[in-house]
Amino acid sequence: MNQSPTPPASKITGTLTNSRQDLCAMVILVTAGVAARLLLRDFPNFAPVMGIALFAGFIMHRAALAVLVPLAVMMISDQVIGGYTFGMMIVVYAMLAAPFLLRPLLRNLFSGREHSWWTRSSALFGMSIGASVAFFLVTNFAVWVQSASGVSPMAFYDASIQGLLHCYGQALPFFRYTLAGDLCFTTVLFGGWALAAAAIEKSSEKRLAASNS
Length: 213
Known about the structure:
mainly alpha; Arp2/3 complex 21 kDa subunit ARPC3; 7 helices
């Protein structure tokens, strides 16, 4: 009778190790994200979720778990902060999970040594700013749609181009907080990872040099 080949023990061990690492990373990122969002809730739109979404997509092995991280942060913290209409919640959650789509670019950017520090930093900040702009445009467009269609109880904006521009204009002062929060937490997370990776590499080189001496 034909049987499917048994995967090598090393492959099974590696898969289990990756799963444990992902679960640990998920718990740490979700806990830190919820705590930071609750502590910073008095600062409008200054939040860690976008930076965490970018970092989770980069650092975690399993894509499915990575995309759950920002969603879990939002779901848990919204129980305290409060949410919005169901339709608006879907748009907000989707846009906060969207940086996950940059995962292949991030992994390619930080793999190996072919990219300079300046290239990596510039590209990372560009991705963070792009995610912030996309969030601003899409979520406020959704606010205008709900308002103009009468779905939202706060129907402030007319169903016209002028109404849409008014909606964006009203939201613009808050965008600086969104941008600052996204850049801040992206810098902290990726900068912390880079420093830790450099320290580990330096320590390994010292041990190797000591063993060869």
